Amino acid sequence: MSRILDQRILLLVISFSASVQSTKVLSEWKKCGDPECEKAMSRVQATTDYLGPDCRYLNFKAGEEIMVYSKLSRKNENLWTGSKGKDFGYFPRDAVKVEEVLIGEEVEVLTKETDFLCLHEDKYVFE
């Protein structure tokens, strides 16, 4: 009986730590094409396959086109956010090459907690 209880506690701890990790703030600042981060900043092409560590990340294959909407700044400048079809998420900037710049000037804004939640089927997933 105590072994089953120990296993359940272990699963609860693992589940909680995964939840905390998936809502972790990756940066307090980001750069966008406008204050609302609605304008696409650039069009990029994947130079390598990428599989992200969790549901907040955009997975892609080399050669696929991605529209970039924001770039994390200050604390974590390596991560950009963008979309490929209906998929949206973070990816490392060194996994892509810029094909076309669509904005003239970047605007730096504070991130929001919702920037770091998983988005599934147009709904935020609160883990």
TrEMBL record:
It is a single-pass membrane protein. Residues 1-22 form the signal peptide. Gene3D superfamilies: SH3 Domains. Residues 39-101 form the SH3 domain. Keywords: Coiled coil, Endoplasmic reticulum, Glycoprotein, SH3 domain, Signal. InterPro entries: cTAGE_MIA/OTOR, SH3-like_dom_sf, SH3_domain. It is found in: Endoplasmic reticulum membrane. Its main location: endoplasmic reticulum. The gene is Mia2. Pfam families: SH3_2. This is MIA2 protein. It comes from the Eukaryota. One of its GO terms (biological process) is protein secretion. One of its GO terms (cellular component) is endoplasmic reticulum membrane.
